[in-house]
């Protein structure tokens, strides 16, 4: 019997339908096992993992995601959006991130959520788009709880913000340097102190910043320079040094503190703290100067007293000798000796007056007489190459002081100017002037940057009482100034010029007592001394002395005239010192003027070119930036041919030739409000105010 073909003996017989069913069952089993495996894995991961469909409904979530919901809410999570519990702003943010994930395939966001249990948590959530075999799109989201990290970050940011606020608020300069002397960290005060207001760290330590020896004003050697010492590891604890900006000539007393940074991962090598203690140091120097003057006065008084006794003995002896029958030649010699003794007695009298060993010999005398005698004293002492000019004087201008000491003080100032001119070969003229000062408020006159006031207690108290007076009266003064066009002094030298024994002359050329004697006389006279100097232009020294009266000696407080007001005109103030610019601005506003302010000649020119139309320009003479007052006036007249100009300067020795194209009034610094307002009205063509 023939056999039909078929499976071999022992092989299972399976129909085609049953084979497909078995394959499908195997696939389902594999899928289920895969899902179970995935769930096992996802449930072990501590992150919140969930899947959303295109309707933003949760279709699957791991146990950690479900665990944030109460037990009775977990069953309702699957199949819902779960966003109903959040506010509208949060819902919109969630949905927007879902849309981005669907459109772009990926989205990441940091979210602060209030969980169903009431706790607010921060999640870092990443969402990616996935598809199944049928093309259905889903979002797989993984949310990591970073609450503690976020809180720590917020605290760190808050701490840094607080530190930065303190860093920028402190008045002292805080500067971080690396080992190469680069500034890698600096606060606003530090930028201002170094003159680097716009530089971005890191930048090189400014080459123009240096430190001077206050004794001789020479740069400190490297071994004494505080910054160099800090960079080699020395810790500096509050040393006071004289810091200068070489280009500007400005010098200020700075307290330096430094510490090394012992952190190899940090670019910082040293942190330097610089505090401006100029005012405190000036006060200390003022006290020290007074102490030196007191000691000098005691020494002077002792010497003068003993010398006076010797002169008296000599005079008595010569008087006795003259009673004898002397030859005419011997009589002439004895008379000459007595005259010399008389002159010596006058000198010791002045020394005793300076030392306050005898009552002050103050009297009221016309300045015209004092200056007339000075001309005779000065002429033999001044070289022919130096011109000495005495300014025109008011006939009724009387100074109340010791007239002999006044002559000595002015003569001292003239000889100082002569020495500066002859030693440097720069300059050729000295000018002596006097003018009446009706009222000099310290708030207007004094400036920490441009003048170096040496106010006596009496003068300061009088000025304050004048300000406080309610009867419209004030003590009037006379200003006597000596100006030269010599080399000028740096601000650092001018700051110490009044110190006893301080001198820039060679050892055999000066004692350093000249200006301190002037200061002592003015102080004793209840006056004030100011020094104003511009290197390369010259120096002006001003003495303010009480005004005298023929009948009463010291003039009684005088009735102040009302200040002439403006009529709404616009004044452009060009002044590089902010303090003085602000004070002038406030004064002129009070006088009914509108104000434009420029911090340099260059800024003033830019304002004029931009269309500013001031009725008058009030400008400082010496300003940084390449355009001083004289050049500003010339450029201003090219733009506005008829605009009035008034110059201001502490140094008043400028000649008309130096003003150049625009010769205009020159107001001394300081000037009283009445002088300023009067000059403005005169320049604007209205002296009646």
Please provide a written account of the structure.
It is a single chain. This protein is α+β, with helices and mostly antiparallel strands and 689 residues long. It is 40% helix and 24% strand. It has a 7-stranded antiparallel beta sheet. Helix 8 (278-322) runs antiparallel to helix 9, helix 10 crosses helix 11 and helix 11 (403-424) runs antiparallel to helix 15 (514-524). The chain is elongated and about 155 Å long. It starts with 15 loop residues before the first helix and ends in a 6-residue tail after the last helix.
Write the layout of secondary structure elements.
Layout: H1 16-44, E1 48-52, E2 58-61, H2 63-66, H3 71-74, H4 88-104, E3 106-114, E4 120-131, E5 137-145, H5 147-169, E6 173-177, E7 182-186, H6 188-194, E8 203-204, E9 209-212, H7 226-231, E10 237-245, E11 250-260, E12 270-276, H8 278-322, H9 328-354, E13 362-366, H10 367-378, E14 387-390, E15 398-402, H11 403-424, E16 429-437, H12 442-445, E17 452-455, H13 457-468, E18 473-474, E19 477-484, H14 491-496, H15 514-524, E20 528-534, E21 538-546, E22 548-549, E23 553-554, E24 558-559, E25 570-574, H16 578-590, E26 594-598, H17 601-609, E27 616-620, H18 629-639, E28 645-649, H19 656-659, E29 666-668, H20 673-683
Parallel strand pairs: 14-16, 25-26, 25-27, 27-28, 28-29
Antiparallel strand pairs: 1-2, 1-5, 3-4, 4-5, 6-7, 6-12, 7-8, 9-10, 10-11, 11-12, 13-15, 16-19, 17-20, 18-24, 19-21, 20-21, 22-23
Helix pairs in contact: 8-9, 10-11, 11-15, 17-18
